[in-house]
Amino acid sequence: xxxxxxxxxDIPQDKLGFTYSHEHLWCCPPxxxxxxxxxxxxxxxxxxxxxxxxxxxxxSLIEGSTIDYGRNGQKLEKMAKDSGINIVATTGFNKHVYxxxxxxxxxxxxxxxxxxKDLTIGMDNTTIKAGYIKVGSWLQLIHPLEEKTxxxxxxxxxxxxxxxxMHTESGTMGNEMxxxxxxxxxxxxxxxxxxxxxxxxxxxxxxLAKRGVYVQFDGCxxxxxxxxxxxxxxxxxLLAHGYEKQILISGDMGRQSYLEAYGGGPGxxxxxxxxxxxxxxxxxxxxxxxxxxxENPARWxxxx
Length: 304
Prior knowledge:
It is a single chain. The protein is α/β, with parallel strands linked by helices. The chain has one domain: TIM Barrel (Alpha-Beta Barrel), CATH 3.20.20. The protein is built from ten helices and eleven strands. The strands form three sheets. A six-stranded parallel β-sheet has the order 6-7-8-9-10-11, with helices on both faces. A three-stranded parallel β-sheet has the order 3-4-5. Helix 4 crosses helix 5 and helix 5 packs across helix 6.
């Protein structure tokens, strides 16, 4: 059986359990992000939110804070130990507006080697390893530096077999990012396209799914983007076309104002206690729920 790489070491694929496939526990965006609501740097509050997830039956959480977004593997390692939740950390980058200057200065090969090191040796001069790679693009365009890091991600995937997660700004540029990954030899069946529900276009989602990728809806409960009524319809569209095994669902609750422990909402309990019951009420069976929240994340991440 293949393994999944967590911050506490490798676990068998069948031990991942119920999983949120894109969340944030510890992050500190660079100063150019003026909205500090995105900053999650209170350990006790983040741990409390993680324990809220555990309380409602959560087993594993895929953490999405990147090199350019204040990633801290040591904090994640401690949270995993203190909570008993499997945490999978990432290597890679968010989007070019956050990049440090060295991204432009380093070659693609140098960035590739850095990603491989994070995945196989350890992040940030520790032995704590990342379990997948993140790439990102901007609104309606791919910045040259984003293409550079995406190429490096594809090359690192070919060496390590690691999964890739794609940030798409407002759900745009998904296919264009996949074109880069495919051109560079990446395995698209190990790629997840994040924020897809921010572009609530059923045709677009089917075009992504036809390429073999996972289509992720990660805005559940965040009504400012779109309603859950729309998200349910989008999920049903993919199910109706036979793509049950290519759907990932999460909340991406990476703001203080989204997390109960920081005084916000809807919080980590929302999907388990409200969104999934709604899916079931609207005719999606429990076996499909098991596929989406247990089997799909494990298959996407398994690599060794």
